[in-house]
Amino acid sequence: MEKPVAFLSDGLRLYGVLGLPPAPASRGVVLIHGWSGYRIGPHQMLVETARHLEARGFATLRFDLRGRGDSEGEDAETDLDGMIADTLVAVRFLREMAAVRAVALLGICSGANVAIGAATLEPDIRDLVLWSVLPFQPQVRKSDHLRRTRFFAIEYARRLFRRETWEKLRTGRVDFRAVRWALFSGGGRAVGRRNLKDSRRDIMAAFAGFRGRALFVHGDKDPDAARARAVFMPFCRAHGLNAQFHLIEGASHSYYSLAWKQRLITLTTNWLLSCSTSPEGPT
Amino acid sequence: MPANEELVSFPGAQGPLLGMWHAAVPSARGAFLFCHPFAEEKKCSHRAFVHMARALAAAGYYVLRFDFSGCGDSAGDFAAATCEAWQQDILAAAELLRARAPGMDVGLFGLRLGATLACTASGSLAPKWAILWEPILEGEAYFRESLRRVLIKQMMIDGRSRTRRDELLRQLQQGEGWVDLDGFCLRGTLYRGLSALRLASLGPPARRALLLRIAPRPTIGAELEQLAAGWRGAGAEVVTRAIAAPAIWNRLELDDVSPLVAATMSWLREAS
Description:
Chain A is of the alpha/beta class. Chain A has helices at residues 45-55, 80-98, 110-119, 142-160, 163-171, 176-185, 203-207, 225-238, 258-273; strands at 2-9, 12-19, 27-32, 58-63, 102-108, 127-131, 213-219, 242-248.
């Protein structure tokens, strides 16, 4: 059974869908969308995953982070720490609504980074499913920043020379806040001010002490996969983290095919069902 | 915290549909029904729909946004969706809109294929306004283009495309055929229903209509002007406008949609 829900995080109303299995659930999963998506995920894969898990006895909550989807909050002011705060509220909300204690986090792309960030603040989160996780910003090489900055600079230089830009300037129709955001954040990758995708905390340092289990999945045709695995694989080994790494053959960053999506959902469900580290033990 | 927004669930063609109700903030002037675009375009444009709905609510219009059967959070399987079911969903949503905003003038808002679908269902709604953002004029041409994009994407990921567009079209034109449209199972039944849609063959969707072209280099184009002329000939007041904006239905980034919202609200002030 699915039910639309709303809850407050930092005074912002967040919206989502709660999924409850036919029999009382013993475990829950909070699903976290990517940086600019919303709760259904690419090709509705978070909806399909939630329904698949509900049919196998999990309570689920898919919800919109602040400034995204239906939720309140400014698009351009949403940052990683805010998203992590929302996720912790969502975990408490699911625990209460479904009367479950053990809650796993499942995130895609930046949503997987949010999941890691949340798990480092809430020791009861023991199971992490990380689809196409990215390296955290401090781990992103300087060359990536330079490449992106150059791209945005060229893009805005081009716009600067268009007649309508000058017309807008003349008539005062330019939204300077939006321009500043676009120029200096590059959709989350700030050049001149704090990076919205960056945390105020050192999440990787905190993650070193994570004592639950993590499932890392990437598509082998995802251009970010190699970079992410090069960061997380040695890190997990060095800190003795209980982590499994999977590659889905042929898959892109957002798994845009029915076959990849099916493999991802099956892999994830089997892994969650086999989890033995939840506070209540295996079900 | 504006508590004027509420997720709602109501019966649709294939089970409960999920929608968002926006209550009008000042005294109400009318009520709008939103129809989302097709497949992944819906996900990409969702936040734009939220901004448009909030602008309408703040100007005194009720808004109901909802997900078609098998789409978004609504019940049903995308693979089982049909054009007829989606048209029934629009009527079911209109019923809820009328029940919550009794006696109000009704408006339709749609983007891309959602705009086209809204027009097919407008007959029984007698809307006062229709706001059509970048409407799809010909269903068949839309799918040819969509399949081309899928093949280009395959080419970029794999270095080769696994099949040809004509082959995909053949699969869809046959009885039980289906294709994998970027993770959506597009069945022949749905394809055939939607590809038969032709906006020019429908009468004007409302007494007053805005046709908004959204393109990086905005020109209205002969086809849209022709459509507008046809609807004017049938007695509707039709305005065409072109706005320079990225293809918000096809982008991974969150774009600033305020120029689109501002142009729409400015038209509505004139048309109300």
